[in-house]
Amino acid sequence: MGGGAPPPGGAPHHSPRSRQTRTPTPRITSTPTIRTLTRTRTTVHVLTTALVTGHSWQHEVRHRILRPLRLHDTSAPAADPRIRGAHLKGCSAFGESGPVIDVTELNPSGPGAAGGMTGTTDDPTRFYRALMEGRLLKPAQPAETRTTVRAAPMDPARPGARYGLGLMEIRLTCGGGYYSHGGDLFGCTTRNGFSSDGRRVVVVAATGDGSSSDPGTHHAANTLIDEQLCAADRT
How far, in Å, CA of 175 to CA of 154, rounded? Predict the structure, then answer.
């Protein structure tokens, strides 16, 4: 991926078979089993969507989520490496000790549905609110997404964290907890936190790719989310 990707006409498209900011795939450092299951599940969902509906995952996301929620600043650009409008500049050293380079223009189709989207921080705020309010799933399904199990390997970054069907459950320093679904892609990292009722949502986007050589960015984002959600509880 180096310094970017070929122009749209020459950029290869990666399928599951073979500020805006990027919307990256979740990456849980030192938790290979959870990470592998998460990515495998995403790939299975993509293939199942195509088999059942006859449409791509991009089509279904636009039809079922983006348009109903009016998330006009979110898109699935396939192999187009460009991000339209004002956006963060993505920088990465690819987890190595070498120089940090600009990777803002990259082919986003590699991660597929696990991260091949772009959007502003406003749109995921509205998405998570709708998700937790039950506007996207059938009545019994939201409870399933909130069913989590202990994820001790995540403790260094998120003490006491639990993990479930795409959602992490994280403790607040002021008591209680919140749900989250952050992620990392080359040059971009996102962190978020939202209450179980969707009334309080915090989304943070930053340059960086979540590599182990940059724990400071993760800590700062997690601290900011904790502070903002705790402040909301006091108001």
Answer: 19
Contacts 24+ apart (CB under 8 A), 228-235: 228/193, 228/202, 229/172, 229/178, 229/193, 229/195, 229/200, 229/202, 230/172, 230/173, 230/174, 232/200, 233/172, 233/174, 233/176, 233/200, 234/174
Three-state secondary structure readout of the chain: CCCCCCCHHHCCCCCCCCCCEEECECCCCCCHHHHHHHHHHHHHHHHHHHHHHCCCHHHHHHHHHHCCCCCCCCECCCCCCCCCCCCCCCEECCCCCCCCEECCCCCCCCCHHHCCEEECCHHHHHHHHHHHCCCCCCCCHHHHHCCEEECHHHCCCCCCCEEECCCEEEECCCCCEEEECCEEECCEEEEEEECCCCCCEEEEEEECCCCCCCHHHHHHHHHHHHHHHHHHHHC
Q: Which residues pair with 68 in a beta bridge?
A: none
Over residues 4-40, the pLDDT tens digits come to: 333 334 444 444 443 455 555 444 333 444 444 556 6
CA distance 197 to 178: 10
Instruction: Give the tokens for residue 224.
Output: 């900011």
Instruction: Report whether 4 contacts 103 (CB < 8 A).
Output: yes
pLDDT digits (tens, 9 = 90+) for 87-120: 888 888 877 677 888 888 887 777 777 777 888 8
Residue 190 pLDDT greater than 80, yes or no: yes
